[in-house]
Design goal:
alpha/beta, 8-stranded parallel beta sheet, 8 strands, binds (1E,3Z)-4-hydroxybuta-1,3-diene-1,2,4-tricarboxylic acid
């Protein structure tokens, strides 16, 4: 792996949708800069630098107030690049870490000090070499005292196999990209049905209504995504989050325009009340609970 890739739009359009004051982009990443924060030797992709200044200028361009920066797999379990971005944000970013399960309590405390509020467990085989469920559960038990949650990333085919693991997590759970349902099945399809059963199994499972570009192969304006996801947000309005997914890891062959991604918001959160919950109230509860209303 030698060629560095660009997976983000060079000049995203200004969105038509205006986010409410205090809106949080609750799923984005930073890459590097590599000179300061080298990528992991186990990284499955090697991106160009997409550092904090770029992220914060996109945040302002799109009309958002805050970011939740999720440690990207290309940085492995060294969270320095994400911590650097959080520190540079002046209080406008918090994060989700990826940790070695052998991490000790002092290191977890240091991550908390640095603005982390959760850990991510990634089950995508194309992104990580192993995902040890038993060791992940040990981590989940140890972060309870910090008031953190767990973010889980998996594809729809894996959901049933993962149910006992998710059931055993003792802290709130956030599911990335709704567990990647096949949105072409529609809102009543088997993937959405299985995902709703998961949400119904506990009242502390949240989800990110993210990534029309990843989930709807028909491309913009991603009508199948809008049709499948809007009912989920209406029915679980207290548990949905939203994010750009910038810099869109691995999307170099179909780079989305972030302005168009933002314009998906009013199509899936169809009232001002739903938009305020998804963009402000819900993410504030998980990431800035001390400021949440
Ligand atoms: C995402 C999705 C992907 C990548 C990562 O950490 C990552 O590298 O999350 C993906 O390739 O599906 O949420 O950014």
């Amino acid at each position: 792996m030698s060629e560095r890739i660009v997976s983000w739009h060079g000049a995203p359009s200004p969105p038509r949708f205006v986010p409410p004051p205090g809106a949080v982009d609750a799923h984005c990443h930073v890459f590097g800069p590599m000179a300061d924060f080298p990528f992991s030797s186990k990284a499955k992709y090697l991106p160009e630098d997409a550092g904090p200044e770029m992220l914060f200028s996109l945040r302002d361009h799109l009309g958002f107030s805050k970011n939740v920066i999720v440690q990207a797999s290309c940085h492995g379990t060294d969270n320095s690049a994400t911590l650097n971005a959080i520190a540079a944000s002046g209080g406008k970013a918090r994060g989700v870490a990826v940790v070695d399960p052998a991490i000790d309590d002092a290191e977890l405390e240091a991550l908390h000090e640095g603005g982390m509020r959760g850990v991510r467990f990634n089950f995508l085989k194309r992104l990580v070499d192993d995902a040890p469920k038993d060791r992940f559960l040990e981590v989940a038990r140890r972060i309870e005292v910090l008031g953190w949650h767990v973010v889980v990333y998996f594809e729809a085919e894996l959901l049933e196999e993962l149910r006992p693991f998710i059931d055993a997590i003792p802290v709130p759970v956030v599911i990335d990209h709704m567990g990647r349902p096949d949105v072409s099945q529609g809102p009543g399809g088997s993937d959405m049905g299985a995902f709703r059963r998961l949400l119904d199994s506990r009242d502390d499972i949240w989800f990110k209504a993210t990534c029309p570009d990843r989930l709807d192969p028909a491309g913009p304006p991603w009508n199948a995504f809008a049709r499948a996801v809007a009912p989920l947000i209406a029915d679980y309005s207290d548990r949905c989050l939203w994010g750009t997914d910038w810099p869109h890891p691995n999307m170099q062959d179909a780079i989305p325009d972030d302005g168009e991604i933002v314009d998906m918001i009013p199509r899936i959160a169809t009232t001002v009340d739903l938009q305020r919950k998804m963009l402000v109230e819900n993410p504030m509860q998980l990431y800035w609970p001390e400021e949440a209303q």
